Amino acid sequence: MEFKIALIKGDGIGPEIIDSATAVLDEIGKRFGHTFHYEELLAGGVAIDETGVPLPDETLAACKASDSVLLGAVGGPKWDNLPGHLRPERGLLAIRQELGLFTNLRPAKLYSSLKSESPLRPDIVEDGFDMMIVRELTGGIYFGEEGRRQGKFGEEAYDTESYGEGEVERIGRVAFELARKRRKHVTSIDKANVLESSRLWREVMHRLAKEYSDVEYIDMLVDNAAMQIVKNPGQFDVVVTSNMFGDILSDEAAVCTGSIGLLPSASIGSTKCGMYEPIHGSAPRMAGENRANPLGTILSAAMMLRHSFKLEEEAALIEDAIERMLEDGFRTKDILGTSTKTPLGTKEITQKVIEYL
Ligand code: IPM
Ligand code: MG
Fold it and tell me: Do 77 and 61 have their domain in common?
């Protein structure tokens, strides 16, 4: 089969980790007889430097015309003082919104070979954990009304959290459907003791929970959830939450797996075209040094094969290769832990993944 992939390398370590992912994809292509056509597009800081905007129209058009988008990372200190609508991150948010990618899947799973790299106590991670964070991605405070005005304390700035019933219902359905294919448990995280938007969120989730009566359901307040993730991560199967809570909790869950460099993500909507990217940032200080961990990006490419291209066998092969490679002790520096092997660079670990394929 043939697929057209829009490549947004972005800033910082973005280009290196995307090169790793395409190297692995090309190997998969060779094995299974698929051809992946890549189109390199500008977004983020590099796009600001070259075109003056974080998401040029042609990038957006090309993303829409592709079978999927693979993105490295955007942002960096160089662009930190630009106004909000011109920041690199705005480019990323605009793609999510324009492509209607309302679901963000972030699987946080502890590999058994990385237990000692987790910052959590050994007895807490003894039995491992495997949670799927389902983050709402095109609503909430990220996209609500914002502005500046004069207030009691001088100039005031505001951002608004709001959710519509339909928005909550569609993300809730994704979570319940996924749970049916996993361990049949959904935790919905909100702040319903304080926020009206969370109370609506909870009402809708309760309606769905009745409909999906074969799935066990619980509500959890976000402050408690932040605590439970480090205290007993094994209790979570599918976690569903709003855009901002999902952003925060997914970094927390990620680092509990050993390194934020390991976590992939899939952003999907109602069409086949999704966007796949690691959950970490552009790590500008590491850029160009061949020491970034590309595994989160390679695993994102695997998610693209599974969710957008329906190539389950190919996706599973990549995931399995990475798991076996880690079991044999091959590591990048961020997950070296107790391994006695020399840490591998970005390119070298990519070659290892290819060998293990
Ligand atoms: C993420 C990132 C983004 C977000 C930033 C870069 C806009 O932190 O994907 O988690 O907040 O969604
Ligand atoms: Mg984040």
Answer: yes
Q: b/e map of 72-95 (b: 16 or more CB within 10 Å)?
A: bbbbbeebeeeeeeebbbbbbbbb
Residues with CB under 5 A from ligand 2 (ion): 247
Say how many Å lie between the CA of residue 164 and the centre of ligand 1. 22
Q: Is residue 114 part of a domain?
A: no
Domain-embedded: residue 1: yes
Q: Which of 253, 316, 309 is nearest to 280 (CA)?
A: 253
CATH (domain of 133):
3.40.718.10
Domain boundary, last residue among 256, 290, 315: 256
Decide if 86 is inside a domain: yes
**Which residue, 57, 54, 89, is CA-closest to 73?**
89
Residue nearest atom 4 of ligand 1, based on CA coordinates? 247
> Which atom in ligand 1 lies closest to the alpha carbon of residue 137?
12
From 19, 219, 237, 247, the catalytic residue: 247
Query: 181 and 85, same structural domain?
Result: no
Check if 67 is active-site: no
Cα 76 to averaged position of ligand 1 atoms, centre (Å):
13
Per-residue model confidence as pLDDT tens digits over 122-163: 999 999 999 999 999 999 999 999 999 999 999 999 999 999
Residue 346: partners with Cβ closer than 8 Å, 6 or more residues away: 13, 16, 17, 20, 290, 291, 292, 293, 294, 332
* Each residue's pLDDT tens digit, 273-328: 999 999 999 999 999 999 999 999 999 999 999 999 999 999 999 999 999 999 99
